[in-house]
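Journal club side-thread
Mid-discussion, someone asked how the predicted structure for our own chain would compare to the paper's figures. Pasting it here so we can look after the session.
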Amino acid sequence: MRMPNAIAMLAAASLIGLAGCGSAPPAPVDRFYRLQPPNVGQPQGKVTLRSIRADSLYAERPIVFVRADDPRQLRQYHYHLWLYPPAQAVREHLSSSLGVGAERNAIQLDVRIAAFERIVDGSGGKAHAALDITATNPAGAKLFEKRFQATQAAGDDSFSAFTAAMEQALQRIYGELAQELAGTKAGR
């Protein structure tokens, strides 16, 4: 009786070993995306970026996406990542775009990333960004607190087109921010 059991066990072990030798698909490759530096905008005078933060999924490097038909559920791609976490990428992108620096006696900007995602809608998709920005004067008095947001259609469904659309959405936000800052300075 022992011999048939041993043969059965040996046959099962061989089958398991052969199953492991099958051709498995290659492991997915991580892909990294970055925001291209924009053309340096007009310096906004005495404006400095004091802080920028992102919470939850927006603080991580995987690209966040939402399906247009299920907007309450946020998901992350496993192999499509930002080169830098969004807060760092937006800090550099915003600073370059507005020409802000680290000046004393300047309007201080505090930024929180409220949305930084890809909207998957069956077409080329869209990039959606929302930044909550608080501006304070050098004495610490609040000048404004506002959400700036933009959605930009991507040229196609590639991640490169999505990244370019995110750059365009951010540029629209920066344009609105520059107008708000100009109005704040005019109203002093």
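Post-session note: The longest strand covers residues 107-120.
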